[in-house]
Amino acid sequence: MIRRLSAAALLAIAMFACTRVLDIGDERAADGPCGEGSCRPGVMCKADCASCFCSDKAEWYCSTTCAEDAGSDCPATAPVERSSCTTTAPRCTYQNPCGELDTAICIDGTWAYYYGRCPPPPGCPPDPPPLGSPCPPGSTLRCPYQNKCGVVFHAVCDGSGWFVERPPPCPDAGCPTTPPEPRATCTGDAKCAWPNACGTFDFGYCAGGYWTISGTCRPAGCPMALPPYGAPCSHEGVECTWAQGCEGGVRMGRCIDGTWRVGPCI
């Protein structure tokens, strides 16, 4: 059984156990009270016989049984994140293609999943570089990274600077399985991402009772990086969208009379 422990109970556990907090995703560690106070999403730790997991809302959830893998109580294959669970196993681990361990924990009847970090190829920065920061001159590096949900996004060196794909948000509980029509009604404040035919993601968020949807498939003639207003273009009439510099929105542009006409964030 997994339940959320009171602050007093968590403090009592921490007094009797080592409190080294392990970040399963990037193998870095921080010392602090396990299961107490604020936390970094994805962090797991052990305190005595309790296993604690920091949810994507930065809240601790702790089990009441020892944190060793529970063998037959764990599914044979990795469960789908946010799918239902009834297992008594506090933690289940699965090897990913990089040889690292992905971790699943059953919290309040739902699987929470944290992905072990796959190291980037040689020559790639260990962490995603800032957008537009310098990269090796003449390089064509394409470096994969993962967000905390395990979804891969890339940083691409165009020979002068880094272009970083917008990493998709981790799916909220209110995300539909397929993208809704733009301006369809919704409730809540969900932020969602859906795989598309281009191998990237379409994004959507619910605000003011309506869905805003933006696609990332790039027609021929659409550059990956946002062009300056008035820059030359060669595919007359093509329409493109970019998420750069638009928090939760997109910027649209069109090639008109050989130059880019780029609008504000919407």
Order of helices and strands: EHEEEEEEEEEEEEEEEEE
Mean pLDDT, to the nearest integer, reads 71
Residue fraction in strands: 25-35%
Low-pLDDT stretches are 1-31
Helix count? 1
Q: Determine the fraction of residues in helical runs and give it as a percent range.
A: under 10%
Task: Give a verbal description of the structure.
The longest helix has 9 residues. Strand 17 and strand 18 form a beta hairpin. It is built from one helix and 18 strands. It folds into three domains: 113 residues, no CATH class; 46 residues, no CATH class; 90 residues, no CATH class. The N terminus is likely disordered. The strands form five sheets. It has a six-stranded antiparallel β-sheet, with no helix packed on it. With 266 residues, the chain is mainly β. The N and C termini lie far apart (46 Å).
Identify the notable features of this structure and list them briefly.
266 residues, mainly beta, 3 domains, six-stranded antiparallel β-sheet, three-stranded antiparallel β-sheet, 1 helix, 3% helix, globular, disordered N terminus
Topology overview:
Elements: E1 2-3, H1 7-15, E2 20-23, E3 29-31, E4 43-47, E5 50-54, E6 60-63, E7 92-95, E8 101-107, E9 110-114, E10 142-146, E11 152-157, E12 162-164, E13 191-195, E14 201-207, E15 210-214, E16 239-242, E17 251-256, E18 259-265
Antiparallel strand pairs: 1-6, 2-3, 2-4, 4-5, 5-6, 7-8, 8-9, 10-11, 11-12, 13-14, 14-15, 16-17, 17-18
